[in-house]
Amino acid sequence: MSAQPAGILASYRFVDAAADAIQALKAEGYRDFTVYTPVPNPEIQQAIGHRVSPVRLWTLFGGLTGCATGFAMTLWMSFDWPIVVGGKPIGSVIPYIVIAFELTILFGALATLIGLVFHIRKTRQPGAYDGRFTDDHIGIFVPCGSERRQAVETLLRDAGAEEVRVEA
Amino acid sequence: MSTIARQDPITRPTYHEVTRDIAATIGSPSRSYYVLLGVVLVVLAVGVGALLYQIRYGLGVAGYHPPVMWAVYITNFVFWVGIAHSGTLISAILYLFRSAWRTSVYRTAEAMTVFAVMTAGLFPVVHVGRLWYAYWLFPYPNQRQLWVNFKSPLLWDVFAVSTYFTVSTLFLITGLVPDIAALREQAKGWRRRLYEITSLGWRGTDQQWRHYTRAYLYLAALATPLVLSVHSVVSWDFAMSIVPGWHATIFAPYFVAGAIYSGVAMVVTLLVPLRKMFRVERYITVEHFENLAKLLLLTGMIVAYSYGIEYFMAWYSGSPYERASFWNRAFGDYWWGAWTMILCNGALPFFLFFRKIRRSIPAMFVLSLFVNLGMWFERFVIIVSSLSHEYEPYAMGHYTPTWVEWAILAGSFAWFFMWFLLFAKNFPTVSITEVKEIMPMPRRGRQHS
Fold it and tell me: Does residue B355 fall inside a structural domain?
């Protein structure tokens, strides 16, 4: 785990106050702050304005890989040991749709989770944290040096922070 | 009392109270919990004993008798896979529909799904007798250079059920992560250590939520067609053959509706004692039972309709074998099974048209037990009565289950309840995060509104 950067940690009880603080931070040009929320909240998400997560591409490519694997595996195995069963062609595509369908779902779900873990690790936010943020508080951590500490602290307090803490 | 989202803003629990109340369900349950767990373990031991007896003396100790070579074990398999289905319906399909009431009950339903599939998965293995060869079901490179037969519905089942188990387990774990993080801050001792590991470093940062909400949505979107496919594939185990009574195109939707019907009944059976034992009456209210009752009513009516259509098609087809099979089903050796199923599944759900019954928890509990009984008999009747009465009169036979099969059936219930009880004691059976999510976060000036 990377070392925790120095900065300021503010906690909010009210969602609109936290959204105001995020807007104010963005207006001041801060980009690398972290927002902790107990639940995903549309107001906060809108204030932060992230682009849609790329996890969906993992789902898509996982699903396509699964579908291709399903057809390729069943057909290859049928021709590798060709035996006529039930008077059907050696490579019968129609019954293999079931296998391909299940593998589409399986690979799609596994890829989604791999993508989830990958992107969360890639966008890791190692700032200071408080246990209340998974309970009922919203937290904002702004990494900053000592020279800007005063300005950030005022900004966070003005938006309505319940508590502001300096993390050195 | 209504669901949390619609409760009075003054009396509605706050975010902190949600965390506190649900954290309180963990760790120190009442004495009745341990009594129940003890009973479950004794029954499980009986089931395991019966299985060991069968392994020692062979499949002959089961009542298999030609032509009935699929019987109680396959009935149990279909029954337990069916139970699993409503969990995914509530956790994934209702999630896509954005239905708010599901948040309090979905965790229970989803855990039930995973444990029911774990139970179902045992039965094909028990049924094949030499269970140490169970891996032959999977395509793996071997010295004989043989591959499995992908044209067989039984093999589709292997893929469908193992995919279902994997995806529903991953879906359950993904949903648990933010909840465990919320518990982590409250727990002490070894439990805190457990939650620190299993919360996977979750802190609820904006980036984590950004990826998580998307991933969860796509998992739900994948689980939705999956759950419909699984019981369709199970139904094709029967419908793809030419046994009279099985060979019907209605089987896939009929089985899926029946699966959800039996599963919702099992959710009710689990929730009634759970909300008392863990004191979560504030979160699982009469309104939840009423919504589950409506699901039961809908799927029950589809099942009743399917029963009617089955008999109609047997008559309308003009095939003497179909007609004889269905005549035998209603008035032959297994008439008691057929009428139990018609009574419990085809007639009882109509009581749910009465609001009084939908909103009475004791009535719902009793009804759910009857539905479970009826759905078990449905599978028994479909499997046993059809196989015992095919085409040739000299090849017809009679099957009676033996004590070994009954003991293994009882053991399977114990196995299922054991996992559920252990889960309920150590992990939140009501989702902390999703219950909070349907309540608006407090705003300046207008708190809790």
Answer: yes
Q: Is residue B168 part of a domain?
A: no
Chain A residues lying within 8 Å of B151, measured CB to CB: 85-86, 88, 92, 95
B443: nearest Cα among A161, A10, A15: A15
B222–A37 C-beta distance less than 8 A: no
B163 touching chain A per CB within 8 A? yes
Residue the block writes with tokens 């719902």: B364
What confidence score (pLDDT) does residue A1 get?
A: 45
Q: Is B211 on the interface with A (CB under 8 A)?
A: yes
**Cα-only R_g, chain A:** 25
The pLDDT of residue B448 = 46
Q: Taking CA atoms, what residue in A is nearest to B152? A: A95
What pLDDT score does B250 carry?
92
Tally of domains in chain B: 1
ipTM value = 0.92
Fold exhibited by the domain A7-51+134-167: Alpha-Beta Plaits (3.30.70)
Residue B256, pLDDT score: 94
**Separation between Cα atoms, residue A88 and residue B444, nearest integer Å:** 70
CA-to-CA distance for B286 and B6, rounded, in angstroms?
13
What pLDDT sits at residue B445? 66
In this prediction, the residues of chain B whose per-residue pLDDT falls under 50 are 1, 447-449
**Residue extents of the structural domains in chain A:** 7-51+134-167, 55-122
Residue B279: which H helix or E strand, with range?
A: none
> What gap in Å lies between CA B52 and CA B98, rounded to an integer?
47
Structure tokens at B281: 């009456």
| Residue B242 at interface with chain A, using a CB cutoff of 8 Å | no
Residue numbers in B near A132 (CB within 8 A) = 185
User: What are A107-149's pLDDT values in tens digits?
Assistant: 999 999 999 999 998 888 888 888 888 888 899 998 888 888 8
Tokens linked to B180: 């465990």
Query: Which residues in chain B are contacts of A2 at CB distance < 8 A?
Result: none
Residues 6+ apart with CB under 8 A from B19: A134, A135, A136, B182, B183, B186, B432
Sign of the C-alpha dihedral, residues B94, B281, B259, B111? positive
For residues B326 and B310, is the Cβ–Cβ distance under 8 A? yes
Q: For residue B49, which amino acid is it? A: G
